[in-house]
């Protein structure tokens, strides 16, 4: 294993959009503004490079495609401005983004992926470490670092969190990959930059001189690890949460229904729907169909079932007093919850954080089903009226988002296994892995990624205090469902 700090900077430049922006100023919304105190998002993908694409061809290719991608996403090449009234805007002035080329040929892919804990070397593959989003007034809103390894390449993006949420971030990353591999423009998910919805407010967020600081201790000792869960394990959890027997047929139906509800799949392939229902009948779903007068019951999702498992394991590992209130926060996409709906690719933040509370005693004395029900209840209730109530409450008391775990009993779930992270094919295949940098890491911060195989597996990037991580690793219930690491 190479020693630390083996990444060296080869070059750095500014990349500009290849076309001038026609957008003016985009006002930050009530979902954007709270993120001004957060670090830039740092996410990236690990690849084996194209064997016939040497460095002197790869770097110019990526610079050129990034320039063209910025013309699809002009706000990312802009800067923040604050007017005399205190409103913050993205000025789409084509000021450009940072592009860094780094060398880490002392690392092999196996060096990075084999350790049990996430290799700290990944943090060297991002720039803008601990950069707070407010600094977008003077710094680029996006930086891309391409790091060459002995047998691979890592493409890491750092994006201002007051500009994008996960939906917008991965749409940019996917488009960057599509442009690089020469995909048809018809495949692009064109971002929607309109600012005529309930999230655009007249409320002013008053900030201290010099801008806000992060709301957690970024120097606290932490361990980071990826726990993987197979589709089969997740479906077993879902069956437990829904109080039914797990079968292979249930597993197949779950996958079919996810595909049938995926708007993008339907849109891009009109034949999908018929093939889905052909499969449905082949596995004999009709024989188990409910009578027409059957009472509809609420179904707990696969992901909520997995979150319940995590909630219990972390609570056990923290050894909290039974009366201590625990919090499980889930970030939810509000685009489809509002009426009228926002566009699927509305550009910006359109997320809200849903907290679910329960005492440590309840979490551990009740079963997994009960914990999953509490999460499900809050997510289901988060409809148009609740989204608007959140907006109204924020307008009465504008404030930054309180990331962190101040009471030692919180879990914050971010990202989503539905994000198309492994769709980032730059022309030399899908990523081998998705990893993050140092940004916004604290005890209890969890990020959900899709598994690489695309069959419904989920990877959880778990960040915990070292002693808590040890407890989770020895938790019999949790490890029963986690995929053993070879």
From TrEMBL:
One of its GO terms (molecular function) is transferase activity. Coiled coil: none annotated. It comes from the Eukaryota. The keyword Transferase applies. Gene3D superfamilies: Chloramphenicol acetyltransferase-like domain. Keywords: Transferase. The keyword tRNA processing does not apply. InterPro entries: CAT-like_dom_sf, Sec_Metabolite_Acyltrans. This is Uncharacterized protein.
């Amino acid at each position: 294993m190479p020693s630390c700090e083996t990444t060296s900077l080869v070059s750095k430049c500014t990349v500009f959009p290849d076309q001038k922006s026609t957008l003016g100023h985009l006002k930050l919304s009530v979902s954007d503004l709270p993120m001004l105190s957060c670090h830039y998002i740092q996410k990236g993908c690990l690849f084996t490079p194209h064997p016939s694409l040497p460095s002197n061809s790869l770097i110019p290719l990526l610079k050129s495609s990034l320039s063209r991608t910025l013309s699809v996403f002009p706000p990312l090449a802009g800067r923040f401005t604050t007017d005399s009234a205190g409103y913050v805007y993205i000025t789409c002035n084509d000021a450009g983004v940072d592009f860094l080329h780094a060398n880490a040929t002392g690392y092999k892919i196996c060096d990075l992926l084999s350790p049990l804990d996430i290799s700290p070397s990944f943090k060297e593959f991002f720039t803008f470490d601990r950069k707070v989003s407010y600094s977008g007034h003077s710094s680029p809103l996006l930086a891309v670092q391409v790091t060459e390894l002995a047998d691979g390449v890592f493409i890491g993006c750092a994006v201002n969190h007051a500009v994008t949420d996960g939906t917008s971030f991965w749409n940019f990353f996917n488009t960057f990959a599509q442009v690089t591999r020469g995909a048809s423009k018809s495949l692009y998910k064109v971002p929607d930059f309109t600012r005529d919805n309930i999230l655009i407010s007249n409320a002013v967020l008053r900030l201290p001189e010099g801008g806000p600081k992060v709301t957690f201790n970024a120097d606290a000792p932490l361990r980071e690890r990826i726990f993987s869960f197979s589709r089969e394990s997740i479906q077993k959890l879902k069956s437990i949460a829904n109080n039914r027997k797990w079968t292979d047929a249930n597993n197949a139906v779950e996958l079919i229904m996810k595909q049938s509800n995926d708007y993008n799949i339907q849109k891009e392939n009109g034949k999908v729907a018929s093939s889905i229902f052909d499969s449905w009948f082949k596995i004999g779903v009709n024989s188990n169909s409910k009578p027409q007068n059957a009472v509809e019951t609420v179904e707990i999702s696969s992901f909520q079932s997995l979150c319940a498992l995590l909630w219990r394991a972390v609570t056990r590992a923290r050894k909290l007093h039974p009366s201590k209130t625990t919090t499980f926060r889930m970030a939810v996409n509000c685009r489809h919850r509002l009426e009228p709906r926002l566009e699927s690719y509305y550009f910006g933040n359109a997320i809200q954080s849903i907290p679910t509370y329960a005492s440590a005693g309840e979490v551990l004395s009740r079963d997994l089903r009960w914990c999953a029900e509490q999460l499900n209840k809050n997510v289901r209730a988060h409809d148009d009226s609740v989204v608007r109530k959140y907006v109204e409450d924020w307008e009465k008391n504008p404030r930054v988002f309180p990331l962190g775990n101040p009471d030692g009993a919180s879990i914050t779930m971010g990202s989503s296994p539905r994000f198309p992270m492994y769709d980032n094919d730059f022309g030399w295949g899908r990523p081998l892995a998705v990893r993050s940098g140092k940004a916004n890491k604290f005890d209890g911060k969890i990020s959900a990624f899709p598994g690489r195989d695309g069959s419904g597996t989920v990877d959880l990037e778990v960040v915990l205090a070292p002693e808590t991580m040890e407890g989770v690793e020895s938790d019999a219930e949790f490890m029963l469902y986690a995929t053993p690491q070879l």
